[in-house]
Recover the amino acids of this structure.
């Protein structure tokens, strides 16, 4: 009887130790930093580690950007969906070297970048003289 009890206790102890080790490994896995795109990465949860993901929609029409000003914090990931309502336009963000291709009416394009520099940056349509006709705005990074 003592031998059977000893075997049972040994098996139970091994089982409990295995469960404890499995739980510890699972906790290590959830706290280990990952690179963007991997399962469990901060970008999938809407955070970048430094800042937040800020999403905007800018509509281009009648030689204007709507909205014409967007404000984010340094370190934020900026995701802008550019929708062209009429004509052909693009969107350039000076100082960040970010731009869309030339977008036809009814089409859209998304640009995404990390706002890693503070300041005020021009947003504009670079097609023809569209900027001079009012297609400009401001990105403020604080």
């Amino acid at each position: 009887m003592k031998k059977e009890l000893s075997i049972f206790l040994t098996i139970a102890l091994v089982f409990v130790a295995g469960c404890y080790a499995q739980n510890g490994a699972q906790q290590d896995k959830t706290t280990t930093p990952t690179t963007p795109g991997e399962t469990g990465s901060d970008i999938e949860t809407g955070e970048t580690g430094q800042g937040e993901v800020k999403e905007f929609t800018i509509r281009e029409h009648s030689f204007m950007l709507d909205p014409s000003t967007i404000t984010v914090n340094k370190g934020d990931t900026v995701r802008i969906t550019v929708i062209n309502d009429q004509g052909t336009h693009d969107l350039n963000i000076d100082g960040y070297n970010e731009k869309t291709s030339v977008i036809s009416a009814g089409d859209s394009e998304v640009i995404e970048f990390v706002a890693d520099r503070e300041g005020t940056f021009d947003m504009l349509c670079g097609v023809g003289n569209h900027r001079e006709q009012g297609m400009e705005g401001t990105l403020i990074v604080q």
Summary: The chain has two domains: 2-32, 46-141. The longest strand covers residues 53-61. Confidence is low (pLDDT under 50) at residues 19-49. Residues 2-31 form the longest helix (30 residues).
